[in-house]
## 1
Amino acid sequence: MERINAVITGVGGYVPNYILDNEEMSRIVDTSDEWIMERIGVKTRHILKPEQGSGTSYLMTRAVKQLLEKTQVDPDSIEAVICATTTPDYHFPSTASLVIGNLGLKNAYGFDMEAACAGFLYALEQGASLITSGRHKRIILCGGDHMSSMTNYQDRNTCPIFGDGAACVLMEATTEELGLMDSYLRVDGTGYEHLHMAAGGSAQMPSHESVDQRLHFVYQEGRTVFKNAVTKMSDAVETIAKRNGLDKDNIAWVVPHQANIRIETAVARRIGLDESKVMINVDHMANTSGGTLPLCLWEYEPQLKKGDKLIFTAFGAGFSWGASYLIWGYDGAAEAAKSPAEFYKEGTISREEWNEKRGVH
Ligand code: UT7
């Protein structure tokens, strides 16, 4: 029997149209464009304002809607929707159930996956398992976060880092040698004290005190997280490259979690990869947590070619991290060209502007 692989066959995305730049950020906390650019590499981030909408389902619903429009697949053929997010609309029901309901997907079930910034990486592996087991043929994987909902805009150590956004991929069964080939995923459980949101869960229920102490926001000890992120993402990329015969000459793209430009370039340096082969959008998207990997695919889609070898890597709370090797399934330029032009109408920026920004012509 032929081996079934799980291949990505389409990408959709959405970012809200409010842009919070460093100039505005420096009026909120004691910081500067210079510091943020030098230490993080973020110029602007998209923020979902309450008057526009709320919840990660708002972002994901729009991303999936665009994916369905672009790919023209029958919505009734979608069998499952997995949403990787740390900012679900509610503890329950799941964000996936809201997205499915909003889009009227009649034959799908769905669930959320919480693995912080590594969420989409894990979703790729879980989604591929559903497909390669033979149980499903067509599913959607979403990654995204409404990070501004848990960002403390009184803490200059964290607030410049985060932005809001979501993107998704269509994953389908194929017998071609395409799709997710290998994953190396890990959690070590040592990360709580360095990166967490203390209250609001079952360990520390919401109370007047927890609100007064601002415990419903991200707490991060930046330096420790930084060091772990560089080491663990680099190790994971090296491991996955070595065991699949990949090197700087045959890797088309590394798709790293977008936490800090210095982390991404350090990972590229470690495997001797030219920085032009590293997808980067942290400069104008910031860290969208579960959204960073699929948002990279969304923006770089026109440059992706069938057969391109991609390595994804991410690191987040837990600590959780890893790397995956995937062979890209279609010619992105052709797909982008035949997509309706208006699919960017809800974003702030046109396809032409994206391309201009990224030097794609
Ligand atoms: O997505 C999940 C994974 N997350 C990450 O991977 C994030 C990893 N961490 C980082 O990206 C960086 O550690 C940060 C961007 C969070 C911080 O950069 P850093 O270079 O590690 O700065 P630091 O925390 O060591 O702080 C250096 C100095 C401090 O001042 P002193 O104590 O040296 O006088 C901070 O108070 O910079 C100060 N500082 C700022 N100054 C201006 C911290 N935040 C700011 C700010 N503006 N926004």
## 2
Amino acid sequence: MRHTKLMEGAREVAKRLSDAGHQAYFAGGCVRDLLLGFEPKDFDIATDARPEDVRRLFRRRVEVGAAFGVVRVLLEDGREYEVATFRTEDGYEDGRRPDHVEYSTSADEDVQRRDFTINALLMDPKTEGIIDKVQGRKDLEAGLVRAVGDAHRRFREDRLRMLRAVRFSARFGFVIEDDTWAAMKAHASELRVVSRERVVAELHGIWRSSRPGRGLMLLRESGLLGPALPFLAGVPEEDLLALETRLARLPELLFEPDPLFVVAWALHLDAVQAAPAEPWAQRLVQDFKLSRSLARAITDVLAWRSVLCAPEQSRIGRCRQLLIAPEWATAFGFLRAREGGASASAEWWRTAERELREHPPALDARLGGDDLRALGLAPGPAFKEILEEVELEVLEGRLETKEESLAWVRAKA
Ligand code: ATP
Ligand code: MG
């Protein structure tokens, strides 16, 4: 087992707790990842110490709001750890999020409230021994996502767990165990009670996993897709299958999360034929609580859809406008996901990009509003059109200096 700095810090935190007479274990995702041979991106520590005791032991902390029984402790060099007091079931009144917790002094009880067996393993940091009360190791080895306890009850408590099952399956390529899967199908429509923010966070997790195509397949077959993304209701099966193929290309396109989310959203909206006619930017912000900048980036890419997908049928100047636009890299990612990296259209764009690099247009020859005013033209709606026309002429190589552009406008006016 590789001992990273992050893991060493987690040991330090656990040791301080055990030196004070408490139990302290690595818990949940970090144990799962260690056993799978992945480097955990964070370590959570479970303890019988009450939050007030944890606070006494750790003066440096990140104050977090709503999370019950969780203290975020901070080591000198900025490493952060979540220390969570053992608890029994969380109190779920509404299937959305816990409204209270009951602390416990028993590690056994603590694992019973966790969502899936693969997430319910504890590790003793001193011995690296695994404490497995739910046969999680067996499921980890078999590659199964299985609810802890009665799946129906667990999904009724917190409907988000259904999306988490899909996310873990998409991340690790695991199969969702039969009873767990049957319960997901039975409760899928109840996902609607979960807040949009939590749903979107899980969708993003699925999209940036190594198997986003599989994620879509599971969402579709479980019946979670409609409740998660209602705008996809009514999209024919074959279009959803096409979307699955497109999403499956995302990991090989090696995106940073931000452009990846832009492309993934754009692919989903693209599956709805009517997409561009709708005020999507606004809907994405309102219905899905996306940030304005993310929503804008998505609609910016979609606005280029027809040029992107059929460049030969577009004016070359328009194509070059896209090539020099800030959203070009993301738009090209969208195209490669949509049509495949070796598609004729992707090849067309690569050639066009090379040509533009070899024969760069004289971008300084473009004009601005001030230039038109100086020519004595009255500002108005026609301004934009004239400036656009000049830009296209410049990009097509017919205007090479500002003087030529001004003369061109004068001749037209
Ligand atoms: P990731 O690597 O994506 O962070 P994770 O398993 O660490 O995966 P977290 O959301 O960080 O997931 O949660 C940490 C642990 O808390 C989980 O492993 C699981 O034991 C428990 N947990 C988290 N969310 C829930 C939930 N909704 N219901 C029950 N247990 C949960
Ligand atoms: Mg985690």
